[in-house]
């Protein structure tokens, strides 16, 4: 089970970090910061460059923390939050990704939620430094992540 959690954390975390890198740089097929800002403006968000930096930075930070298994509940909340915003952007297009729907960000939200519930596993930096986890931590991460994403949408969307 620990190996499965490690693989899940690595794949989800690195994919989310890569998604964030695309928002703010030309690397990994991204359109750079100006392209990320234009994407957010096109999706109806305020802020342009600031919004792209916040979203991209959150995705990079949360993704790398999740991959490393460091501050895992906070990392999972960050992934859930940024990907919840993406779900809301694509909601009107339906579920399936071939129609530009919310399937992919919804899967990432779900996987981060699962990692918040299952814990970090033995092969994580949290386990190495013996970071304690209270019983309320997983529900708090889920509420903060999804609630934070919905609040971000409400505040920044025109």
Number of helical stretches of at least 4 residues: 7
Please tell me what the overall shape is. globular
Number of domains as seen in the coordinates: 1
What proportion strand? under 5%
CA distance, first residue to last residue: 44 Å
Number of strands: 0
Low-confidence sequence ranges: none
Percent helix? over 70%
Pattern of helices and strands: HHHHHHH
Main beta sheet:
none
User: SS-based structural class?
Assistant: mainly alpha
Mean pLDDT: 95
Q: Taking Cα atoms only, what radius of gyration do you get, to the nearest Å? A: 15 Å
Write a structural description.
The mean pLDDT is 95. Helix content is 72%, strand content 0%. It has one domain. The chain has 158 residues and is mainly alpha-helical.
Task: Summarize the helices and strands and which ones pair or pack.
Layout: H1 2-24, H2 32-42, H3 49-68, H4 72-90, H5 103-118, H6 125-128, H7 137-156
What are the main properties of this structure?
158 residues; mainly alpha; 72% helix; globular
Short account of what is shown:
This protein has seven helices and no strands. It has 158 residues and is mainly alpha-helical.
